[in-house]
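INFO  loader      accepted 1 record
INFO  loader      residues=542
INFO  predictor   begin
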Amino acid sequence: MSHIHTLAQDIEKAGVSLRDDQQLLAIEASFITGPKENAITAHKKLVTTLGTNPETFVEFWQLGLRMYCLTGDIVRAERVANTLLESPHEKDARFLMSFIRTCAGSPATVEKGFELYQRLRSILGDSITIEDYDQIISHFLASGQTEYAFYIFVEMMTSNTIDLRGAYRVPPSVANPFFYSKWLKRLIGAGDLQGAYNVLLHMKSKGIMPQAIVVNGLIGAWLRSHTAENIEKAEAVAWSMINARMQFISIRKDMKSLAAFVRLRQYGEGWPRANLETFSLLAENYKERGIHHKMEELWTAFRIAEIAPNSFILNQLLFSYLQDGQGKQVAAISRDLTNQYQVAPDSWTFLALWQALPVNRLVQVPLGQFVEEISKTRSLFADMVRSAHIFAEGSIDTQLARYILHSFRKLDDRHGLLLAYRALRQIFKFAPPEFIVLEMHVGAMDLEKIRKGRGGLRLMHAGKQMESYLRQRYQALLASGQLQTGDHLPEETKKEELGDFLEAFLQNQIPRNENTEKFLERAAMEMGLHGEVPSFEKSPKT
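INFO  predictor   done
INFO  writer      dumping tokens
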């Protein structure tokens, strides 16, 4: 528009006449980029020309309406709107939308805005759309005129069979949390979070308790926006719900010591009681933001609220302790909660537990503690084997498997590493990607650092070994007829071959002697794998 404004001025200086449509565009550009008064003056000068020309009549007056609305000149805007409505020219009555928005923005003119909406609805008749209603409702919500917005929503949902204007009593069919929930879900889905909040406040002012599931939806949307203002609102509402839950628990306890005819009632701001989802939303947000002290406050409130936790809440708590540098407490917290609430661990729980091991938290584990740490690591793997059913629907997460393998590697527990890897393949359906195969070969988790440092040659050698092995296996598959000349190695076959390549490497790291089978048997017992994995002698193809 800035370019158009400049171009129009240059054309005028050059003495070239603009077409009618170009004049209108020039006025609009002037209004947007230049002094608005100049544009309005230019528009007034064309009233007797473009304002009477049948070909430009509608576009000319609609432009005037938009300009008067944007400058807040309600009197002239209304005059122009009436000129358009009373004209015989064909037009879309939706031009009134801009005037409705302007009127809805001020308490002094909101009534006029509602009357304009009714007039527009009458003109459009059956052609009015849901989108039209949504747009009009948004104008009233944006200015805090929730009562009028509610009237319009009711008319939309009831096909104009219920008119609440001047009604002494709102019928129960709409004055209930279920009806409001439809509106709230629609607003949240459309991203109008402030509008949804205004509706919640309107509900509470009418004594209607919102449903917790809907309020949680708004809290989640606020938190996902990652804006400071929305996060502050989300926390305030969520903690109000938590307080309502805690008050309910307190009253329930007090009622036990009172006579049967005595009834205690809750008081407060009218928010619904927090449920597991409410706590989960805050827990995830606090964990992501690394606010451990708030996580501890939340956990204290959670215990008072007497809601049984699930694995999600457990995981957020565990990862929060990890982020706060308190990883040594993770195992004990997980064990206590699992025993107290019978919370079944999931993949994320085990990831937190493996990351919390000293070998993954500390720069270096003292040599005197290696035996103890090996025992803890094997015991944790045994716990995971006992929970193998949670991985039944698919393979184990790559990051979890990676931490498991590197934990055994860092402790130089070669027997445990071989058995853990075999179990990951056979029990947990793990197929190692190339980067993990290379990591295990060079003995490091940061391949980029190895590549740039002294280990670059070692990494290059490992890569060549892997490529050579895959070529050999490719030729063997060709020779056996499993592949035809010109065929590429199927991806699944490649994964299997890489798995065998890594297993052969790990097996070769263990010296063969008369105690090998005994050490493997002992490790298998400690890792919960007795009878589950092949013995040392059943080596993969090499």
